[in-house]
Design a protein that fits this description.
The chain has four helices and four strands; from the N terminus they run E-E-H-E-H-H-H-E. The protein has about 180 residues and is mainly α.
Length: about 180
């Protein structure tokens, strides 16, 4: 004698002790994946790249935002940072002028300028006696180094004074408002 309990269900023998009178499973029996059965070995957690791992992730919350005010800038730190930046920019300046000088020298620009200068400043009776070049590597790099040193002092001084001015203005107005947020 067999009993069916609905469409799509399997037939069960009436003598099967695991089934109740209505054909349902007894509470002591559990049907499911092997990991869910009592006494069965546990299934390892899903791998990071698997579909189950993507489904198991918690829903992402939006990044938090914080609204802050920049009330004070420390002038001593501004002095140190601006000094370091201006020294680095000094070396960048020297390298840029050196590249420009040697590039124009390779195109004979300096020799043409020096020839034109000596032609304009020499008298006909002293043809080649006192020929001096207007533009030389020594003069170019000396002027470049002096301008760079002046820039170091000015940039550092102006940045430090700007920190003092900002602190005074922030004390009166409350400072600059910043909105900071976490990365996505």
């Amino acid at each position: 004698m067999t009993a069916t309990s609905g469409p799509g269900s399997s037939t069960a023998s009436a003598a099967d002790p695991s089934r109740g009178n209505d054909g349902s499973l007894a509470p002591s029996q559990h049907v499911g994946p092997p990991a869910q059965r009592p006494g069965a070995p546990a299934v390892p957690p899903p791998r990071v790249g698997s579909e189950n791992a993507r489904r198991a992730k918690a829903p992402r919350r939006p990044p938090r935002l914080a609204s802050l005010q920049l009330k004070r800038v420390d002038p001593w730190t501004v002095l140190k940072i601006s000094l370091i930046v201006s020294i680095v920019m000094f070396f960048v300046w020297m390298i840029a002028v050196g590249v420009l000088y040697y590039t124009l020298g390779a195109m004979d620009v300096w020799s043409k300028i020096n020839d034109t200068f000596s032609t304009l400043t020499s008298s006909p009776d002293q043809a080649a006696a006192g020929q001096t070049d207007l533009i030389t590597a020594g003069r170019v790099f000396t002027v470049t180094a002096v301008v760079g040193a002046i820039n170091i002092v000015l940039f550092t001084l102006l940045a430090t004074v700007a920190a003092f001015i900002y602190n005074a203005a922030a004390a009166m107005s409350g400072g600059v408002e910043l909105t900071l947020g976490e990365r996505d």
